[in-house]
Write a structure and sequence with these properties.
Blueprint: E1 12-15, H1 17-22, H2 26-34, E2 50-51, E3 59-68, H3 73-85, H4 103-107, E4 118-128, E5 137-138, H5 140-150, E6 157-163, E7 168-169, E8 176-185, E9 191-199, H6 206-209, H7 233-251, E10 258-259, E11 290-291, E12 298-299, E13 301-302, E14 308-309, E15 314-316, E16 321-323
Parallel strand pairs: 3-4, 3-6, 5-7, 6-9
Antiparallel strand pairs: 1-8, 2-10, 8-9, 11-12, 13-14, 15-16
The structure holds 2-acetamido-2-deoxy-beta-D-glucopyranose (NAG) (2 copies).
Length: 326
């Protein structure tokens, strides 16, 4: 819980709203679970992310990935296919044709923001495989240096640093599942680059950062956790964080785009809708989702090659509502 406040560069983080939503919610959840419709009697305050007018990431944007620590090839494929699917043309997959919304249709919510959104391309992927004890312990400050060293910032790219399950990051799990931020680069610090970090929570806090594929920390009863669409609680959870952070990065890359609340602890495109994945969601219930008949896995979007994902709701600036797929 080392929450160092930095004045020079705002640390924009993905607040762990799941835990907040669950902890005090036990009686309310019980009521809601017995009669979900009750929730509609209480109209929630509309969430409004104010447009602060700063530069957004639009046009062609490359996402480069730095896998920090061991990710199996199958795990990297889950992540890479997700990023590749974001701006892919909608090609119906024979097995899921007309059944599920595409990952690209999920990402299109970001094109409703000023500037028309970003067309994402997967760029370089690197992996730092063998880490000594010291290298397995990081603070968010390390990611700035890593992103800069990787040189990924050239040409309007986002660097995504993804840490393996055994890498400890201060504040990971305690208050966040990942962060996005920006830093200055270039000879005179004139150019800026955006970067993000998300961790594989499998060993450290699956209940917080891989919900609903794992029980929330305070949850002792109720529905069992959902089966993750790619069979990997940690990486399917990581994709939820990555998806949320990418949406936050393009719509609020430099801390003066779309957000609600404090600049240092903003609610952004996805965090404003934390815990919501499908229609009818309420605290502790992710909402109505699709189910894979063969595996029992829950998902709400399909990417290239028919790969399934569970992606968070995004705030829609045209309706001021959280937009769910399907
Ligand atoms: C973006 O990429 C597409 C496809 O590669 C290309 O046709 C287009 O010209 C690019 N746009 C810009 C502004 O660079
Ligand atoms: C993380 O940052 C600290 C402080 O700058 C530094 O001492 C440490 O070597 C960095 N760790 C890695 C793995 O880069």
């Amino acid at each position: 819980m080392d929450e160092r406040k930095r004045s020079s560069s705002p640390l924009l983080f993905l607040v762990l709203l799941f835990a907040v939503l669950h902890l005090p919610g036990a009686p309310r959840c019980a009521t809601a679970a017995s009669n979900p419709r009750m929730l509609f009697l209480v109209k929630p305050d509309p969430i409004v992310l104010r447009d602060h007018g700063g530069e957004l990431l639009t046009g062609n944007v490359t996402v480069n990935i730095l896998y920090y620590g061991r990710f199996a090839p199958a795990q990297r494929a889950i992540v890479a296919d997700f990023v590749r699917s974001l701006s892919a043309a909608d090609v119906p997959h024979p097995r899921v044709a007309n059944v599920a919304p595409s990952v690209a249709s999920w990402w299109r919510a970001t094109s409703l923001y000023r500037g028309g959104g970003a067309r994402i391309r997967l760029g370089r992927q690197q992996q730092l495989m063998t880490l000594d004890e010291k290298q397995r312990s990081l603070s968010p400050e390390n990611f700035t240096a890593m992103a800069r060293r990787a040189g990924h910032h050239r040409g309007g790219a986002i660097t995504a640093v993804l840490t393996a399950a055994n890498v400890r990051v201060s504040s990971f799990c305690a208050s966040r599942c990942g962060v996005h931020d920006h830093a200055k680069a270039g000879a005179h610090g004139k150019t800026r680059f955006a970067f993000l970090w998300a961790g594989n929570p499998a060993q450290q806090c699956p209940g917080q950062c891989a919900w609903p594929f794992h029980r929330a920390p305070a949850q002792t009863a109720g529905a069992p956790p959902l089966v993750p669409p790619n069979g990997d609680v940690g990486v399917d959870g990581l994709v939820i964080s990555l998806a949320a952070l990418l949406a936050g990065t393009v719509t609020n890359p430099y801390g003066d785009g779309y957000y609600q609340g404090e600049r240092e602890a903003p609610l952004e495109a996805a965090t404003a809708c934390a815990g919501i994945f499908g229609s009818g969601a309420y605290p502790g219930y992710p909402g109505k989702l699709l189910k894979d008949r063969a595996t029992g896995a829950s998902y709400n979007a399909v990417g290239l090659g028919g790969r399934k994902y569970l992606l968070p709701a995004l705030w829609d600036p045209t309706t001021s509502q959280c937009r769910t797929l399907g």
